[in-house]
Each structure stands twice: as structure tokens, then as C-alpha cells.
């Protein structure tokens, strides 16, 4: 165990301790009388003396001392009851501490660092203490966190760790605080204070790293700066938690995803470490077994499963969710099983910690050596609810005779109940063509597999299953097995009638997605006969429209039409819809949206795999981004866009069984097959030609499809051909060691970088467009953009019902991706320039939200405008109706769910770009109430200025002058006198006393034009000088950046 460092004299230690190991900074010692060759009497004698003379011997017979070469004082840092225990501590010091100590210049610094680190480790181990002590420690940590970093109380501290933060080559021992939106660190050692608060939404890299100086550390990159954290007691656990928090920030702030009320991550101020771990565990569980998004991992049991086909038990884990019982082996057999609980008919408990589960089809599964098997049996019995939900099964008997194309007619639209391939290319059982004979042999192999391993739900999936998939699934079984392997069969079973009702709701509606779908319908496999008729086109339209209506965040994206076309060839229309759901929402997450983040992430993963497996290409090409750009279509369409349809379906077979791993393996195999030619390329164009020529040479020699269906790619007689089955087999043989867990880890690691790269591109586009219209420098514009973006995120941090979250529309241009509501805008604007409530005037399109263009244009006038422009801004500000900031968002017509007029939207932006300044003559007159408010605003603007008193007097003089002018003008137009014969003038002499404007005459309201106010103020040099002076934008921006979070703390309730 680690000990609180205590001083011990070496002269006492030499009498009673034997040195076992030593280095420049640490000594491992054994007490005499213990260990091999020591008698019991010696141990008793030495132990007695040791107890009297050395108090450290009361702890354990082994200890580790810290020393420095220039000191005679030693410090105890660890002890142990056995050599194995103390060796673990010694090894940890060797790996994590030794290299670090070499950077210090003095022995005192080394000792201080070691003492701080050991105390941190003791505190870390103390976090496993009883609940009451742990809760007390955590409350103390929360108070320190709030005091040190000044964040709102709603910012939830998830956990904290002892670690070292590296600033240059010097480590700073302190504490890392992980909260829902920030990575914080604090250290105070030898008078040196280090304080960090890094937002998760600005993290671009988060990965484990190692170097000569640091054996293991966590590298965090934020806005181009790298931060290293090391010497963590549980580094992997800490890294995974940091990864989860960063992923949560991306999901909630960039993707604008919201969670159901009962989700553990639904309320940011209540997120805990356990909630994050549960969420990550559920995600991994659903991804591995391809289960619907509603499923959560409830219970896990270790057990053996009897494999009837190999007559032995395999060790693995039983995972139980709300509606499924799943099993995955852990002994290398790669066997997994999914049992829908709706299929369970009987549960037999033969005793001896074993369970037998019977399902439909007179099949049984025997689990043995189940820990807590009684609890498992009770869980299964409780969850088993027999159901008659429709399932995709080739063995289902059909009671009525079916025509080649049946139609299940709803209220409005007809739904095809037959795969298009069966309609346009029915299976000919009498054909004795060699290719058809091979196809029948494949079918027989699968029938044998079904007989041994089962069919449909509850089929054992093993290495043999994968081998059959690699050889190509038979045409007649492709739809059934796609549904099974993808998990779409489960989605369809638990949502009966969903697709038909969805069609009734969405067909006939008009939206931007519908327009894009109509445009791409006839570009989807145009060579195939099925999509040269209305039958295929109508089915494709219905599936794509239904999905766009189901998931408006994705809507429709190019490449979805190509994939859906292939799905319709081998699956019924409703099945094709659920296959599309499985692909878009589970198997290829974030692929089919406006930014195709998922595809770009997998491109980054592909680059990593190239560096690991194709080193000759890495040595030849320093920049591998070429392969990412050229392979994007491979991933988006699963090679359908580059391979003939008869070959591409074999790739889709492997994809539905192994997921994205199969696509990555095949992409690597394509490069490996052409590596020699690629190494000889002189430019990118030549490399593209080589790859296109290779894809043209890929064939499927065993395909039974007729020539009218196959996609010819030119004359292949002049070049050698490659069979798709051989290419896929080569991919599995050469790159089959790529594990699913490895791919998922690389996906998480690269997603942050991809998201931040896209954000950087968006920022550059926005600044490039706006820089033409404002006078800010490039640096100032960039800083203001960061402030605006941070304010947008702050509005989402602690409020799950934020208006910016609820009204987010991913289809809007990049200029509108980040917007502020009334409260957020006023808070930020007051930090930069407190000139009143400018929200309504800045909201040019009157939608209740301010985008960055509107924000920067308003700020540019106040920072860089002339005296006339600033005064006109204030004048127009007080002409606006009261903007109460009630939080109501008045969305523009183009943001609704109705039809989107793109030309009208572009014309609106063009009008804004070409809009000239309003002519001052066309400005309306300001009335009595508005003028009083204008005067008060001027007083507040002048507050704090060096010439404040003179400015107040100037405003008072101008106010009095304007009122006298108005009174004179009124007399000229109405010469009547009062009953007493005197004019009822209220003002005879001007007043130089600052204060509220004088009250007007009782005879009605008065008003002023902008020209009158401008001319009057031009006669006051003090006022002109105030408005014409240069605004120190850099200082104000720096102040706003430092005060933004502090200001948020005062506004968050």
C-alpha cells in the first residue's frame, strides 16, 4: 500500500533492513528475518528490535524508500506484506515516475514532486472507501471545483483524479476535475499555480500517448494547443471517461441531439459517472448484437452454452435486455446468439446451475454453470411474453396463392410485398446452366447450415457462417439473411404496421427532401430493368420518402438512393425500409446527413489502417488524404457505385454480417492488390485511373444473373480479371485480424478531429463572406466568432430545453448554424459594448434569433462606424417596438416543414448583400416617449467616461434646444393664444443641468426628425469627440472572453 511520506534515517535502516533493489531515487528493502533462508528465531529477534527502534516496521516487512543523491534523508512511500505486493508498487514507480524525475534540477524539487504524487495516489485509493466517507470527499471536491474555477453551480462535477500536468518539460502535480462540459486542472506547488478549464466542445484530439519522457499519458489538443496529463493511477479508466464526456459534448452541442426524459443523459446538471458508463455499455451492447435503439443491457451472466453442432460447451456471457437474450463466446470460437424473448416457449430448470430454453421451431438451448442462475430464470420468465408479431422467414407457410407482385393496399398508397428481383428475374429451377448449378450448391450448403445451426432468430453465428457469407449468399436467401444479420428483422417485429401508417402520413407532403428524392429517382441503378418501370421507381420513392419523414434530421442524402435500390432488389418494400433504418441509424451512424461526419470519420480510420498495414504506401506518400477522398464513394455506397451490381451485392453480404469492418478490409485489399502500380504513380490522376481500371476488371464469375441485369463495364478481354469472391477472401485472410473493438475505438478517437476540422472549415467560410462587409481585422473577427459560438454553446450547456436546441435546423446554411436567442445575445452584447437592448434592431429577418452576420454587423457599426452611423443606429434602435425577449421564436417561412423555396432564400441573401444604408431623409420621426428613452440611453452610454459631466451637460443643452425649436415650430403653425392672452410656452431659457428631459407642453405630443437631432449634436464637440474616438476592440474582446463564463454564472438560475 502507498504510505504518507514520512522521514526515516538511513543509519537506523541499515541495521534492520536489507536492500533488495535500488536506483538513483528509490530503494526497495526487506526486513531482516523475513524471506528465504531466515529462521523463525531471527525473525522474532529482529522484529522485536525493529519494533522498538523503527516505527515503520510496524506496518509490513517490505517497504520502498525515496531518496535523492545529495541527501541523507529518506522518505517511506510504500509498504507491502509480500514481495509480490511491493513489486507492483516498484514497477509502477519505474514506469511512471523515473523518467519524469530527470527533468528536475534540484533534489528538493524531486522530493516535493514525489511527495505530492504519493499523496495523490493515497487519495485516489481512498475513493474506494465506504460510501459515507466517499460522499464526504466528493462533496469537498465539488466545493473546491466551484471555488477554483468559478463555473455555475449547474456545471456537474462527474469525478476527479490525481495526476500531473506537463507544462513544457516540467510536471505539475495536482488534480484533474472532469465535469459535463469542461476538463479542468488545478495545481499549486512551490508557489507555482496552474489552472486550466478546457471546454469539451473545443477538444480536437484526445488520445493516449507515450514518449521517451512520458511512458503513458493522455494528450488533449484544444485550439491548436497540446496538453499532456500523466501519472494517473487508472489511466485507461480515466481515458475512457474523458472520451465519453467529449463524445457527449459532440452529440449534444454539435449534432443537437436531445434525449428522452428517462435517459440517463437527458439532464446535463444531473449526469454522473455511472450514467456515462451505463450509456456507453448500452451503446456497445446494441452495436455488437445489432439490436433496436430502445434496448438496454439489464443483466450479465457468465455461463457455458452447449453447441450441438460441435458437441461441446463454449464459455461466454449471457446479456439480457428488455426483449432479448444474447450470448457471446469468450474462448475464441466467435460464436454469438440472439434469442428474442417473444420466441421463448418454455424454460426448464434441470438444476445444477443449468437452464434449458425452448423456442419456436422445437429448438432448445442449454446454458450451464450459470452464476446466479435462479435470478436469470426468474428474469426470463418475467420478460417472456408470447407474441405473434410478423417475422421475415422463408419457412413461413402462405395460406393463399400469391401472384408475382402482390400489393398490400393501404388507404392511399400500394406497398409492394415482393422483392423486385423476384419480379424481374424470377428464380428458374429448371435451368441447368453451370452458374445456376453453382448457385444451387450454395443453397444446399446454407440448408445444411440451417439444419445444424438453426434458421432465423436464434441461429448460431460462427466462423462457418462467416465463411459461407464470404463465398456469397444465394440470390433466394439474400433478403432473409440481410434482415437477420442487420437486426432489421427485430425492428420490423416490434413495430408491426409502422411502415404502412408512416406512408399514409407522409405521402403527398412537400419538402426539400421530397424535391431531392424526385431529382435522384431516375439516377438509381438506371441500367437495371426494375428501375426502368414505374414499379421500381414508385417503391423507391415510397421507401425514401417514408424514411425522410421518420428521421427529419437526416431527411435525404445522396447515396441513399443507390443503397435503397439494391435493398429493394432482394427485400420486400417494408423490409427494405427497415434495412435502410438499420444502415443509417446503427451500422453507419452519421453517414447520411448534410456533413457526412460518419463517412469522414471512417476515412480517418482508413488512413490509420493504411499506416499500420500498408507501410510501403506510407513510406512512399507522406499525405494519405488522397486515399480518403478517392474512397469516400466506396464507403457511402458500400462499393455499389464503383463495382458492377453482381459483384457489389457480395460486398453488401459481408457488410451486413461484419459491419464497417468488412468495408475497411476490402478497401485495404484493393490498395494491397494495386500497391505496386500505386507506388509508380507520378500524380493523383494516374492513381485514380489505376483504381478505376481495377474496379472495371472485377467480376463475379458465379453470378446467376442474366446479361440484361448485369452491368457490363466494357471489353475485359484485354485485361486480367479479378473475381469478387477471391478479392473478399483475400481481404479476410490478410486483414481479418482487425477487430470490431479496435475499429470502434479508432472511430471515437477520430470523430473529435473530424468534427473540429469541419467546424474550422465552417468558420473560415463564414469569416470569408462577412469580412467583405465589416471593418474588423481578421484576428478580431476570429475572436468574435469564438465568443459568439461559445455563447451559443453556453445557452445549451445547462438547459435541456434551450431555444437554440429546440429550433436547430441542420438544413440551414453555415451562416445560420449558430444562433442566439434574446437572453444570450443581450448577455454577450453587454460584455462587448453596453449600448442598450439592440436585439430587435440586429434581428434583421425578424425570426427571433440572431446569426453571426447580424451580430457582427450591429457590432461593426458601434465599433467602427462614423458619428452619423452610430447616432443613426441609436435613433433606429429607439424606433423599434419593445422587444421583451419572451423567448418566442418566430421562424421564417423557409424554416418550416413545408415546401422550401431555395431560389427565394438565395434571393433574400443577395438582397441583404446588396442592401444600401437607409437614407436619413426616409427615417421616420421619433416621438415623445422614444426621444426620452434615447436621452436616457445617451446618459448610460456616457457613464464612466472621463468627460462624463461635460457630456451630460451637452445632452441637456441639446434636449432643451430641440424642445424650444419644436415649440417655436408649433407656434408658427398654430398662432392661437391662451385665454389669458399669453402663449403657453413651457421653456424660456435653456438649462445646462443634466437630468431627465423637461416635460413637454400640455398641448399634445411632439416629435423630432433625425436631421434635427444630428444637427443639434454636431454643435457639441464633446459629444462628437466621444463618438468619433477609436474603440479599443482588442481590450473589449479580451475582457468579454475572460468574463463570459463568469457572466453565465450570474444568468443561470
TrEMBL record:
Classification via SMART domains: GRAM, TBC
Domain Rab-GAP TBC: start-end pairs: 472-659
Subcellular location(s) per record: Cytoplasm, Cytosol
Region entry Disordered, spans: 971-1003
Gene3D superfamilies (UniProt xref): EF-hand, Pleckstrin-homology domain (PH domain)/Phosphotyrosine-binding domain (PTB), putative rabgap domain of human tbc1 domain family member 14 like domains, Ypt/Rab-GAP domain of gyp1p, domain 3
Chief localization: cytoplasm
InterPro entries for the chain: EF-hand-dom_pair (IPR011992), EF_Hand_1_Ca_BS (IPR018247), EF_hand_dom (IPR002048), GRAM (IPR004182), PH-like_dom_sf (IPR011993), Rab-GAP-TBC_dom (IPR000195), Rab-GAP_TBC_sf (IPR035969)
Cellular component annotations (GO), alphabetically ordered: cytosol
Biased composition (Low complexity): 984-994
A Gene Ontology BP annotation from the UniProt entry: glomerular filtration
Domain EF-hand span(s) in chain numbering: 830-865
UniProt KW keywords: Calcium, Cytoplasm, GTPase activation, Metal-binding, Repeat
GO MF entries: calcium ion binding; GTPase activator activity
Superkingdom, taxonomy of origin: Eukaryota
Name of the protein: TBC1 domain family member 8B
The species this protein was found in: Electrophorus electricus (Electric eel)
Originating gene: TBC1D8B
Amino acid at each position: 500500500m502507498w504510505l504518507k511520506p514520512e522521514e526515516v534515517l538511513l543509519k537506523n535502516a541499515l541495521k534492520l533492513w536489507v536492500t533488495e533493489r535500488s536506483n538513483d531515487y528509490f530503494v526497495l528493502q526487506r526486513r531482516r528475518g523475513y524471506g528465504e533462508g531466515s529462521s523463525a528465531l531471527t525473525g522474532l529477534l529482529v522484529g522485536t528490535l525493529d519494533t522498538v527502534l523503527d516505527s515503520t516496521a510496524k506496518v509490513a516487512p517490505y517497504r520502498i524508500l525515496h531518496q535523492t543523491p545529495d541527501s541523507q534523508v529518506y522518505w517511506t512511500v510504500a509498504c507491502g506484506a509480500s514481495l509480490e505486493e511491493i513489486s507492483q508498487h516498484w514497477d509502477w514507480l519505474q514506469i511512471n515516475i523515473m523518467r519524469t524525475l530527470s527533468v528536475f534540477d534540484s533534489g528538493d524539487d524531486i522530493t516535493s514532486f514525489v511527495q505530492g504524487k504519493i499523496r495523490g495516489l493515497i487519495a485516489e485509493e481512498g475513493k474506494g472507501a465506504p460510501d459515507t466517507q466517499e460522499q464526504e470527499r466528493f462533496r469537498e471536491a465539488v466545493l473546491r471545483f466551484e471555488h477554483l474555477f468559478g463555473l455555475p453551480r449547474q456545471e456537474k462535477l462527474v469525478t476527479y483524479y490525481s495526476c500531473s500536468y506537463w507544462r513544457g518539460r516540467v510536471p505539475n502535480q495536482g488534480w484533474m476535475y472532469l465535469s459535463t462540459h469542461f476538463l479542468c486542472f488545478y495545481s499549486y506547488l512551490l508557489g507555482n499555480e496552474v489552472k486550466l478549464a478546457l471546454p469539451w466542445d473545443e477538444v480536437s484530439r484526445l488520445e493516449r500517448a507515450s514518449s521517451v519522457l512520458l511512458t503513458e499519458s493522455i494528450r488533449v489538443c484544444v485550439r491548436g494547443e497540446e496538453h499532456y496529463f500523466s501519472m494517473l493511477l487508472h489511466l485507461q479508466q480515466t481515458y475512457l471517461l474523458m472520451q465519453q464526456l467529449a463524445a457527449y459534448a459532440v452529440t449534444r452541442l454539435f449534432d443537437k441531439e436531445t434525449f428522452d426524459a428517462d435517459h440517463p443523459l437527458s439532464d446535463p446538471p444531473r449526469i454522473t459517472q455511472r450514467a456515462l458508463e451505463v450509456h456507453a455499455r448500452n451503446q456497445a451492447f446494441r452495436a455488437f448484437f445489432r439490436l433496436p435503439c430502445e434496448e438496454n443491457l439489464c443483466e450479465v451472466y457468465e455461463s457455458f452454452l452447449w453447441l450441438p453442432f460441435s458437441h461441446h460447451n463454449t464459455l461466454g456471457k449471457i446479456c439480457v435486455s428488455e426483449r432479448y437474450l444474447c450470448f457471446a463466446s469468450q474462448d475464441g470460437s466467435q460464436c454469438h446468439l440472439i434469442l428474442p424473448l417473444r420466441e421463448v416457449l418454455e424454460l426448464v430448470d434441470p438444476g445444477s446451475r443449468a437452464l434449458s430454453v425452448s423456442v419456436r421451431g422445437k429448438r432448445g438451448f442449454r446454458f450451464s454453470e450459470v452464476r446466479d442462475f435462479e435470478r436469470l430464470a426468474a428474469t426470463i420468465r418475467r420478460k417472456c411474453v408470447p407474441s405473434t408479431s410478423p417475422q421475415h422467414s422463408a419457412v413461413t407457410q402462405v395460406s393463399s396463392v400469391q401472384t408475382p407482385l402482390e400489393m398490400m393496399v393501404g388507404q392511399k398508397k400500394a406497398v409492394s410485398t415482393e422483392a423486385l428481383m423476384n419480379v424481374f428475374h424470377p428464380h428458374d429451377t429448371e435451368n441447368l446452366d453451370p452458374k445456376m448449378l453453382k448457385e444451387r450448391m450454395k443453397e444446399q450448403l446454407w440448408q445444411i447450415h440451417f439444419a445444424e445451426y438453426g434458421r432465423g432468430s436464434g441461429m448460431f453465428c460462427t466462423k462457418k457462417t462467416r465463411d459461407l457469407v464470404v463465398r456469397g449468399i444465394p440470390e433466394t436467401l439474400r433478403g432473409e439473411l440481410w434482415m437477420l444479420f442487420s437486426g432489421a428483422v427485430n425492428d420490423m417485429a416490434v413495430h408491426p404496421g409502422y411502415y404502412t401508417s408512416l406512408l399514409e402520413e407522409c405521402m403527398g407532403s412537400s419538402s426539400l427532401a421530397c424535391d431531392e428524392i424526385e431529382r435522384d429517382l431516375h439516377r438509381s441503378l438506371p441500367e437495371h430493368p426494375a428501375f426502368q418501370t414505374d414499379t421500381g421507381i414508385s417503391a423507391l420513392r415510397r421507401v425514401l420518402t417514408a424514411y425522410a419523414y421518420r428521421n427529419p434530421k437526416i431527411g435525404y442524402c445522396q447515396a441513399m438512393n443507390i443503397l435503397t435500390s439494391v435493398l429493394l432488389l432482394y427485400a420486400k418494400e417494408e423490409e427494405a425500409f427497415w434495412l435502410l433504418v438499420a444502415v443509417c441509424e446503427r451500422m453507419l451512424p452519421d453517414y447520411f446527413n448534410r456533413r457526412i461526419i460518419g463517412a469522414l470519420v471512417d476515412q480517418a480510420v482508413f488512413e490509420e489502417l493504411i499506416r499500420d498495414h500498408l507501410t510501403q504506401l506510407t513510406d512512399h506518400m507522406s499525405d494519405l488524404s488522397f486515399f480518403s477522398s478517392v474512397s469516400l464513394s466506396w464507403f457511402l455506397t458500400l462499393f455499389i457505385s464503383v463495382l458492377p451490381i453482381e459483384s457489389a451485392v457480395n460486398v453488401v453480404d459481408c457488410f451486413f454480417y461484419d459491419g464497417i469492418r468488412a468495408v475497411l478490409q476490402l478497401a485495404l485489399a484493393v490498395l494491397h492488390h494495386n500497391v505496386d502500380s500505386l507506388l509508380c504513380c507520378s500524380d493523383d490522376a494516374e492513381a485514380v485511373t489505376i483504381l478505376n481500371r481495377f474496379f472495371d476488371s472485377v467480376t463475379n464469375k458465379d453470378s446467376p444473373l442474366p446479361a440484361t441485369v448485369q452491368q457490363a463495364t466494357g471489353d475485359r478481354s484485354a485485361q486480367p480479371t479479378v473475381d469478387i469472391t477471391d478479392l473478399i477472401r483475400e481481404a479476410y485472410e490478410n486483414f481479418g485480424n482487425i477487430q470490431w473493438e479496435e475499429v470502434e475505438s479508432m472511430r471515437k478517437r477520430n470523430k473529435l478531429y473530424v468534427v473540429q476540422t469541419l467546424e474550422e472549415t465552417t468558420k473560415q467560410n463564414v469569416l470569408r463572406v462577412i469580412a467583405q462587409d465589416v471593418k474588423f481585422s481578421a484576428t478580431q473577427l476570429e475572436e468574435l466568432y469564438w465568443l459568439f459560438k461559445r455563447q451559443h454553446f453556453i445557452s445549451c450547456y445547462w438547459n435541456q430545453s434551450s431555444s437554440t436546441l429546440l429550433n436547430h435546423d441542420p438544413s440551414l446554411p453555415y451562416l445560420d448554424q449558430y444562433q442566439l436567442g434574446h437572453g444570450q445575445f443581450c448577455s454577450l452584447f453587454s460584455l462587448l459594448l453596453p449600448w442598450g437592448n439592440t436585439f430587435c434592431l440586429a434581428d434583421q429577418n425578424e425570426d427571433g434569433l440572431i446569426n453571426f452576420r447580424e451580430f457582427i454587423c450591429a457590432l461593426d457599426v458601434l465599433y467602427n462606424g462614423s458619428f452619423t452611423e452610430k447616432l443613426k443606429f441609436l435613433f433606429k434602435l429607439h424606433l423599434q417596438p419593445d422587444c421583451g425577449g419572451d423567448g418566442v421564436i418566430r421562424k421564417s417561412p423557409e424554416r418550416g416543414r413545408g415546401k422550401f423555396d431555395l431560389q427565394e432564400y438565395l434571393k433574400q441573401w443577395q438582397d441583404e448583400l446588396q442592401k444600401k444604408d437607409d437614407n436619413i431623409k426616409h427615417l421616420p420621426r421619433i416621438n415623445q416617449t422614444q426621444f426620452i428613452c434615447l436621452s436616457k440611453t445617451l446618459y448610460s452610454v456616457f457613464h464612466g467616461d472621463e468627460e462624463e459631466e461635460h457630456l451630460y451637460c451637452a445632452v441637456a443643452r441639446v434636449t432643451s434646444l430641440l424642445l424650444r425649436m419644436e415649440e417655436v415650430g408649433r407656434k408658427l403653425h398654430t398662432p392661437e393664444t391662451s385665454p389669458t392672452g399669453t402663449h403657453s410656452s413651457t421653456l424660456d431659457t435653456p438649462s445646462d443641468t443634466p437630468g431627465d428631459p423637461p416635460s413637454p407642453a400640455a398641448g399634445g405630443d411632439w416629435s423630432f426628425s433625425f436631421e434635427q437631432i444630428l444637427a443639434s449634436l454636431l454643435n457639441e464637440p464633446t459629444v462628437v469627440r466621444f463618438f468619433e474616438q477609436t474603440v479599443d476592440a482588442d481590450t473589449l474582446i479580451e475582457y468579454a472572453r475572460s468574463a463570459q463564463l463568469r457572466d453565465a454564472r450570474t444568468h443561470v438560475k
